[in-house]
Design brief:
The structure is a homodimer. Chain A is mostly helical. The first copy, chain A, has 8 helices and 1 strand, in the order ααααααααβ. The longest helix of chain A has 20 residues. The structure holds a DNA duplex (30 and 30 nucleotides).
DNA sequence: GATGGCAAGTTGACAATGACAACATCAGCA
DNA sequence: TGCTGATGTTGTCATTGTCAACTTGCCATC
């Protein structure tokens, strides 16, 4: 069987690149190494991705979908905790998604995946009737958990020995402005 | 005047690298380009920084100090807004500081600069007596503004046409748990 | 069943980069 | 005067992203 044509190279590359990213970090992720691991020549990836950034964008999009899955079905605090858990569980993927390496504008695929995930958040908040402005609350909630995740990842909360508790407490320390007057 | 010895190479490199970073982004920042701009050979930087990461760490430390300056003297909402303003005003520097490119642990200089800035935040909150747990509130506040900044930077809030107002509103949508009982 | 075209892979090349080693310059001090 | 160490320099290497040109082999069409 001639293996000249790989068959599922695109998927194999994403797999290899994902492995590299998660286990060794973004810096270790080169197109050539991914190609090596997929058992093809150093230029084969260009048949499936216009350039390195395109590969990264695909990995990030995967990440948004995974994150969306992790949030689905949860609400409130629980959703926030799931968000942070995802970030801590996939630090390098998370950083790729939000590290500003990729310009959202240049990768429509990214924008769509990210937008869909955000939508999950907004919907969850829209359900709670006693909140003044659900959209604003959703933005604030996302900001809170996102910032918390990022700062934990970067090691900015050394006092957080027991991460799960810390996360719960921080999220618990916040209230959202109630609807001014139930008119 | 023989210019064999530059005199202030370290500072000149930081200057050049800072320019590159802020104007063209992290990807465009190479040791060699910085050396070129400082008018020295491609290897001169190694006399002042062990490797590229060390240069980046210095740039990030500068950033923490600048951020500290921007926060100093402000409190509450105002401090939060200043935080976001700093991030939006120096996007690439901010991303370098928090993008996870640098491992805090590997650069003590970084840890110290970041810690000092965080201290400013905690102190500001400790002053407010009606808050249950100031340390927790500080962590939550930092998370909130940090996440907000990051998400804005990445373009995740396309609805935020009027950024300043949006920031004010999001920050305003949050309350911190009050002290349970003024014992 | 031959054939021609096109997607998918391959080899080869190039410039840029981070890093190492060996050499050059020069200020200050014994 | 002459040494020495910090600061710069030149030379070199492996790695990487990307472009160009060539190869393979499946599929449709005659």
């Amino acid at each position: 069987m001639s293996t000249y044509h790989h068959g599922g190279l695109r998927a194999a590359l994403l797999q290899a690149a994902g492995d590299l990213l998660e286990k060794q970090g973004l810096a270790a992720l080169s197109l050539r190494e991914a190609a090596r691991r997929a058992g093809v020549s150093h230029n084969a990836p260009y048949r499936h991705f216009p350039d390195r950034d395109a590969l990264l964008a695909s990995l990030a999009s995967e990440g948004y979908r995974q994150l969306g899955e992790a949030l689905k079905g949860r609400a409130g605090r629980e959703m926030g905790e799931a968000y942070v858990r995802f970030a801590l569980g996939h630090p390098n993927r998370f950083r790729l998604m939000f590290g500003g390496v990729l310009a959202m504008a240049a990768h429509p695929e990214l924008r769509e995946a990210a937008g869909a995930t955000y939508e999950t958040l907004v919907v969850a908040f829209r359900a709670q009737r006693d909140i003044a402005d659900p959209a604003l609350a959703a933005a604030a909630a996302w900001s809170l958990v996102h910032g918390l995740a990022q700062l934990l990842l970067d090691g900015h909360f050394p006092e957080a020995r027991a991460r799960d508790d810390f996360v719960r407490q921080v999220i618990g320390a916040v209230r959202f402005a109630a609807a001014p007057r139930p008119a």
